[in-house]
DNA sequence: TACTTATTGGCAATCGTTTGCCAAAACTTT
DNA sequence: AAAGTTTTGGCAAACGATTGCCAATAAGTA
C-alpha cells in the first residue's frame, strides 16, 4: 500500500481512504490511486482489513451432510443463488457441513466464534451447539432456509409446505382419489410434519377419513432419497387394499418408487397417481412425467440473503421473522382419475 | 487471550504456544489452558492468526456458473467430498462462481491476490484473468478437477474420459451396433473433445467407419443439459438412416433425449441403445434403467485435495501433474443388441 | 549437590490495514 | 483579498494473534 501511495504521489492514509471510504476523497486523486494500484497489481489484504474493521465478509451456509449427499437435487441451485446475491453485496460464501458428529459442530462453532464468518444461513433443523456454546450466542445474524425456525426466534425463509401439499391433495381428491399413500423422509423433521399435515388438512376439509392414509418411510435419512422410495415399494406391495394416490416428500423418493411399482406391474397414472415435492428439473422427463411441487429456491435464496443483510446493517428488530415464498404445483401426466376397481396385481 | 492466560495462571505467550504449537508446551499446562479457554468460551481469532502467519486457511473452489446451475448432478458430491477432505486438513471451503462476465473474474482474482484464500480447486477450463493479472501468477497452488489442464502446468485430477467412452462404444459395437448418435455438450470443451475421441477410437479399432457417427448439439451450454437432449431429439428425428446406438455426454442429456424419442414411438433398447456419462444416482430409476459411465467423483475430490496439500507444504515440484481416476461403466437395460431392420417410426 | 535439559515468563516487534486527530494545503465563494 | 470549505498529509494507535530472544524457573540426570 505504501508503494501505491508513492507511485500515486499521495499519502498512505489517502490511499486507504480512497479504497475503503471513497466518498471522502476527490475523484481525481481516486483515479490516480486506482491507476497506481492497477499498475502495481496491488490488491488490499482482506484479512488485515477485516481484522482492523472487526468484521469478516464471509457468510457460511450450514448444510446437513445428508442433504448434501447425492440426494437433494436443489442444493446446487440454492448455493448458486445465495452466492450470487452475496457477492453483489460484497460478501463471500463458505460451506460448512453439519454431520452427526461432534467434530463438525465444533468446527462450525469455531468458524463463528473465531470471527471467520460474519453471518450464517442454515439449512439444518437445529443450531449446532457443543460444550455449552451455541451458534445462537455467537452474536452472528442467522437466517434459516427451507426450515421454519421462527419459534427459536431465528428468521426463516420457507415455502408453504403445508398449504402446497394440501392443494395437491385436494387436486387428487377432486379426481376421485380417496386412499392415499404418503412416502415420508425422516420423521419429526419439519418437512415431514408440515407436509403430512397438509395432506391431513385436505382430508378434513373434504370430509374424508385420514385413516385411509398410509404412511411409509420415516426411518431412513435424507441421504438416501432413492432408497426411501425403494423401501416404500415394499410397503406398498404388502397393502391389502391399495391406495390410488401417492404423495412423496421428495422427487427422489417418487422417482425410485415409481420405478419399483412399474416393475411390478402397476401402471401410472392408470392405477396410481403420484405427486412429489421439490420441483427438480428431471421430473419433466420421467416416465410418465412427474407432477411435482416446485419450490422457488432461487427466490428463497435471494430472500434469505436480503434478510441477512438487514440483520447485519440496521437495528435487528424490525426484520420479519418469517417469510413464506409459495410453491407452485406443476401438474403432469403422473396424475389421473382414480381407478374404479383397484385390484392387486 | 489475555483472560485465558490469567485464568490459567500462565503467561500470554504460553497460551499462544499451547494453541498454535502444542509440541513446545507441557501436557499439564496445556490441559490447564484448554480448561481455561473452555470455561471462558474462548476461540482464537482466525483472521488475526492468519494475518500474522501470512497465510489463510481457506481454499476456494472455482465453479463455472453454468455447471452449477440446475444441470450437473455431480456438483453436490464434489463439494461434499472436497469439503470433508479439507476440513480434515484444517482448511475451509469457499465457493467462487466463474460466470462469463468480467466482474466474477475480478472477484476471484481479488480473493486470490487479497490473501483471502490459500489455494484453489478449479472446475473451469480456463484460469480467470483480467487486466494483466492471472490466477496463475497469484502464487497460489491450484489443482484442476475434471478437466485436464496439465498442459498449462496446473496439476489435474481427471477421469479417463476418452478410454471410458471407447470402452462403452466397444461394448455397443460388440452387440452389433454400427451407426452411432453422439449428443455433445458445448464443443471445444475438454469433455467434448475427449469423449468424442473415445468414440472415434473405438470405431478405428474395430475397423468401422467414423462417418457413420452423427453428432448433435455442441451449441448449447451445460446450463441446459436437458435442453440439449431435447434438441437432439429433433436432430435425430430428421435423420434418414437412423443410428441404433446413442452416446450422450451427460446423464441429463440422455434422460431428456430418451423421454423425447420414446414419446415419438421409438423403444429403448429395442430400437435404440443408450449410454451416457456421469453416473448420477437417478439413472438407476430411469425407464428403462440407464447405462452410464460413473465418475468416481468422491475419490477425485479427495485426490484433488491431497495434491493441493502437497503443493502447499513441500517443494512444489515433485507432485504429479496429472492423476487419472478411472470411471466405471454401469450396464443397465438401456442397452441391447442392435435392431436388425432399423426402420423409421 | 551440581549440571543438563525442558518448560515457562516477559518483552517487543510484526502482519497490513483503518481511523481519529490536527495541521497544512488546495480549492471556492463572497 | 479575505473568509470559508474541501481535500490531503503525517502521525500513531489500534485489531488479535505469533514468535524470536533471553532470562528465570522447574524438572530430570549423573
Descriptive notes:
Two copies of one chain form a homodimer. Chain A has helices spanning 2-8, 12-20, 27-40, 46-53, 65-68, 75-88, 102-113, 161-174, 190-205, 225-237, 251-263, 297-313, and strands at 58-64, 92-98, 119-122, 129-130, 133-134, 142-145, 156-159, 180-184, 213-217, 245-248, 273-278, 291-294, 322-325, 328-330. Chain A is of the alpha/beta class and 345 residues long. In chain A, the strands form three sheets. A six-stranded parallel beta sheet of chain A has the order 2-1-3-6-7-13, sandwiched between helices. The mean pLDDT of chain A is 90. The interface between A and B is large, with 59 and 59 residues. Strand 2 of chain A pairs antiparallel with strand 2 of chain B. The structure holds a DNA duplex (30 and 30 nucleotides).
